[in-house]
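> example.struct
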């Protein structure tokens, strides 16, 4: 298993996150204010619950970024986590139900 020094790991993570942003260009990620409004109106679970689901899906990983986003047909949390082995994992959580949709 390849282990990266911290500086390289951060660069790799940021590069991977940038690639994810390119891939998710079809998504509209909401501002904190818009996300709060949606959570307050009970259209989505709170961010903390979604992060908890991601942590259960990828144990012992550090959450790097999380955002509430609109896909063409769904409202989802996109959560990026860093595993202890240096792998970046993308978790998609269905925002209304809190169920994990994908882990890559």
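> example.seq
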């Amino acid at each position: 298993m390849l282990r990266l020094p911290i500086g390289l790991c951060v660069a790799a993570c940021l590069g991977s996150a940038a690639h994810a942003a390119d891939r998710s260009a079809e998504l509209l990620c909401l501002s904190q204010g818009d996300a709060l409004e949606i959570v307050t109106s009970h259209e989505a679970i709170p961010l903390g619950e979604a992060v908890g689901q991601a942590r259960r899906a990828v144990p012992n990983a550090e959450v790097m970024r999380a955002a509430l986003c609109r896909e063409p047909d769904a409202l989802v949390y996109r959560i990026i986590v860093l595993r202890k082995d240096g792998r970046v994992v993308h978790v998609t959580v269905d925002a209304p139900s809190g169920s994990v949709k994908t882990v890559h």
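> remarks
The radius of gyration is 14 Å.
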